[in-house]
Amino acid sequence: MWASISTADQAHRGLGTVDSIDNLNFKRMVLLIKHHGYPTGSITPNVVFTHQRSAYIREHYFPILHQAYLDGKADAYWFMHNVKGLHRGRFGFDLVQPSDSTYERLLARLSPYLNGSVSYDLGAFDSLYTSYIKDVERIISAPATHRWVNTENDRVSIHQVGEDFYFFKLWRDGSYGMPQRIHRNPNGNKYTFVEPANKAYLIVDTAGNLTIKGGQLRPQHYSVDGSH
């Protein structure tokens, strides 16, 4: 059964991702672990987690992975990869690959959003998926004050919802995380993130192009996206 889940997971990736397949795989994975236990050393559960679009689903069922890791059953590298992915999906910025000594700090920041215990109940699954899609769409369907694209075809935009501004990144493979609320400076050419742990900031030059600086990453450059 794990082999069939892995095959289905890998059959539609990148821009060919099909959410209904990933959702079915996720449900099958949860039920397999519930009834037969975690497959020791297998990376498949972690990969299925990684490919689930809804951050709300990943946060709700994450304790399954965490308990398997604490029990020595989960692949350590892929578990840490999922911790990093959860953090990026919720807070919008990357960190170096966490380790045994640092991952709990990330989980402490994520704790308000994580399920407090292991749950195999799929009753909330569909609503968690729908709620996430609706929450993201509510923001990115609002007017965009800026749109940019980089040389690797990643796209970023700023959307205004009422008095608030949000930064949104659409990766080249079609994946994305939660839009991040940002502050605009009085001149309108610099934005900082409301999340205090995110030290990056956005600079818009006189030509309208974007540079993202600060944080732990090298400066990132984007040009005005003329496709909209």
Can you put this structure into words, describing what you see?
α3 runs parallel beside α5. A hairpin with a 7-residue loop joins β5 (190-193) and β6 (201-204). The chain has 7 helices and 8 strands, in the order αααααααββββββββ. An 8-stranded antiparallel beta barrel has the order 1-2-3-4-5-6-7-8. The chain has 228 residues and is of the alpha+beta class. It folds into 2 domains: 2-134; 144-224, Lipocalin, CATH 2.40.128. 40% of the residues lie in helices and 18% in strands. The mean pLDDT is 90. The radius of gyration is 19 Å and the shape is elongated. It has helices at residues 2-11, 19-36, 44-50, 55-70, 76-91, 103-110, 125-140, and strands at 144-149, 155-161, 164-170, 180-184, 190-193, 201-204, 210-213, 220-224.
Search tags:
228 residues; alpha+beta; Lipocalin; 2 domains; 8 strands; 40% helix
Secondary structure: elements and pairs:
Layout: H1 2-11, H2 19-36, H3 44-50, H4 55-70, H5 76-91, H6 103-110, H7 125-140, E1 144-149, E2 155-161, E3 164-170, E4 180-184, E5 190-193, E6 201-204, E7 210-213, E8 220-224
Helix pairs in contact: 1-2, 3-5, 4-5, 5-6
The main sheet orders its strands as: 1-2-3-4-5-6-7-8
Q: What class would the helix/strand composition place it in?
A: alpha+beta
Mean pLDDT over the residues: 90
Number of helices: 7
Please mark out the parts with pLDDT under 50 across 5 or more consecutive residues, or reply none: none
What is the CA-based Rg, rounded? 19 Å
Instruction: Write down the secondary-structure element order.
Output: HHHHHHHEEEEEEEE
Largest sheet geometry:
8 strands, antiparallel, barrel
- The tally of domains stands at 2
What is the overall shape?
Answer: elongated
Distance between the termini: 44 Å
**Count of DSSP E strands?**
8
Helix content: 25-40%
- Strand portion: 15-25%
